[in-house]
Amino acid sequence: MQLSQIPVQTPTPFYYYNLELLKKTVQAAKSESAPYGYRVHYAVKANANPVLLRLISQQGLGADCVSGNEIRQALECGFPADTIVYAGVGKSDAEIELALQHDIFCFNCESLPEIQVIDGIAARLGKKARIALRINPNVDAHTHHYITTGIEENKFGIYLYDLEHVITEVAKLKQIELIGLHFHIGSQITDMTVFRGLCIRANEIQRQMKERGLFLPHINFGGGLGIDYNEPYEKPIADFQSYFATFARFFEPEPHQQIHFELGRSIVAHCGDLISKVLYVKEGKNRKFVILDAGMNDLLRPALYQAFHKIENISSDRPEEKYDVVGPICESADCFGKDVVLNETRRGDLIAIHSCGAYGEAMASRYNLRDLPGSVFQYPK
């Protein structure tokens, strides 16, 4: 990133979004999924900024939502209701009612009690609820334990040993239409053998369904595709080609079955950087600290699960030195990186923390009563 790209006099910290890159990324996801007839939904939880959502909806993706407010935001930003899927282990009655009133495409359901509640609310509203069963396939994503969601020790999904019972009970519910199966095993997955394992497990489940004469027209594999946080310039677009090709090679769909995906991080992560100003450079006995005006309230990922982001001093071309890059929050966890190599850094320099478009602004808070970070956009030419 060049300093000339940053608007003059913009108060820091702020998120800087490259909408040209976002558009290219969405188009890449579409072009790589199109030959297989796959349907891609954008996972709104990754970043719900309305400017980004409008661009993504205009490019024809559906929406994957995990709250009632995300459904509202998706609708307001142009996503048609019949492209919205609604997931989440703890949907409230009010959120379920909202989704039913707007006749969204599908609920991804995670337990029998949830499905029974949806059935009751749908009966009261005179609606029919289309659902997919989120299966916990007991497939390890081999990623950070906070973002692994597909093994039996997790809270997510219907466990394989309970699937037969759930299907039997769902068949008794008059306001429920079971249309599919849903999977999501984790996030920031770059090893395609993990997705191959998911396909193999999904094939086994499909065969069991077929043996009992049950055909489901929709299979949703969730998301999880990772990005290269180390090389945001060299690899600005995720490996959609290998991702979709893996499912095409190893999953065995039934005739006329629609395959869905819910991609978030791989769509928006690289298009967003957090721009912060250096408040102080502090010399310790053995370390130098760069103290920024951005903190863990602006970007939580490094404090929450030790996430790595490439950090760059975009104001300096001086010789390189090593620093610990930290924020102003009264927490020792408020650290963006240790032993970070930066060009010699001084008070007032601008620091870019790259690849923050996913789970950056979306997870920002007002901890310490700090202001929320702003947003600045580089529009396509």
UniProtKB/TrEMBL annotation:
<feature type="domain" description="Orn/DAP/Arg decarboxylase 2 N-terminal">
    <location>
        <begin position="23"/>
        <end position="269"/>
    </location>
</feature>
<protein>
    <recommendedName>
        <fullName>Diaminopimelate decarboxylase</fullName>
        <ecNumber>4.1.1.20</ecNumber>
    </recommendedName>
</protein>
<keyword id="KW-0457">Lysine biosynthesis</keyword>
<comment type="similarity">
    <text>Belongs to the Orn/Lys/Arg decarboxylase class-II family. LysA subfamily.</text>
</comment>
<dbReference type="InterPro" id="IPR022644">
    <property type="entry name" value="De-COase2_N"/>
</dbReference>
<feature type="binding site">
    <location>
        <position position="301"/>
    </location>
    <ligand>
        <name>substrate</name>
    </ligand>
</feature>
<keyword id="KW-0663">Pyridoxal phosphate</keyword>
<keyword id="KW-0028">Amino-acid biosynthesis</keyword>
<feature type="binding site">
    <location>
        <begin position="262"/>
        <end position="265"/>
    </location>
    <ligand>
        <name>pyridoxal 5'-phosphate</name>
    </ligand>
</feature>
<keyword id="KW-0456">Lyase</keyword>
<feature type="binding site">
    <location>
        <position position="224"/>
    </location>
    <ligand>
        <name>pyridoxal 5'-phosphate</name>
    </ligand>
</feature>
<feature type="active site" description="Proton donor">
    <location>
        <position position="330"/>
    </location>
</feature>
<feature type="binding site">
    <location>
        <position position="265"/>
    </location>
    <ligand>
        <name>substrate</name>
    </ligand>
</feature>
<comment type="subunit">
    <text>Homodimer.</text>
</comment>
<dbReference type="Pfam" id="PF02784">
    <property type="entry name" value="Orn_Arg_deC_N"/>
</dbReference>
<keyword id="KW-0210">Decarboxylase</keyword>
<dbReference type="InterPro" id="IPR009006">
    <property type="entry name" value="Ala_racemase/Decarboxylase_C"/>
</dbReference>
<comment type="function">
    <text>Specifically catalyzes the decarboxylation of meso-diaminopimelate (meso-DAP) to L-lysine.</text>
</comment>
<dbReference type="GO" id="GO:0009089">
    <property type="term" value="P:lysine biosynthetic process via diaminopimelate"/>
</dbReference>
<dbReference type="GO" id="GO:0030170">
    <property type="term" value="F:pyridoxal phosphate binding"/>
</dbReference>
<dbReference type="InterPro" id="IPR002986">
    <property type="entry name" value="DAP_deCOOHase_LysA"/>
</dbReference>
<feature type="binding site">
    <location>
        <position position="359"/>
    </location>
    <ligand>
        <name>pyridoxal 5'-phosphate</name>
    </ligand>
</feature>
<dbReference type="GO" id="GO:0008836">
    <property type="term" value="F:diaminopimelate decarboxylase activity"/>
</dbReference>
<dbReference type="InterPro" id="IPR022653">
    <property type="entry name" value="De-COase2_pyr-phos_BS"/>
</dbReference>
<comment type="pathway">
    <text>Amino-acid biosynthesis; L-lysine biosynthesis via DAP pathway; L-lysine from DL-2,6-diaminopimelate: step 1/1.</text>
</comment>
<feature type="binding site">
    <location>
        <position position="331"/>
    </location>
    <ligand>
        <name>substrate</name>
    </ligand>
</feature>
<feature type="binding site">
    <location>
        <position position="305"/>
    </location>
    <ligand>
        <name>substrate</name>
    </ligand>
</feature>
<feature type="modified residue" description="N6-(pyridoxal phosphate)lysine">
    <location>
        <position position="45"/>
    </location>
</feature>
<dbReference type="InterPro" id="IPR029066">
    <property type="entry name" value="PLP-binding_barrel"/>
</dbReference>
<dbReference type="InterPro" id="IPR000183">
    <property type="entry name" value="Orn/DAP/Arg_de-COase"/>
</dbReference>
<feature type="binding site">
    <location>
        <position position="359"/>
    </location>
    <ligand>
        <name>substrate</name>
    </ligand>
</feature>
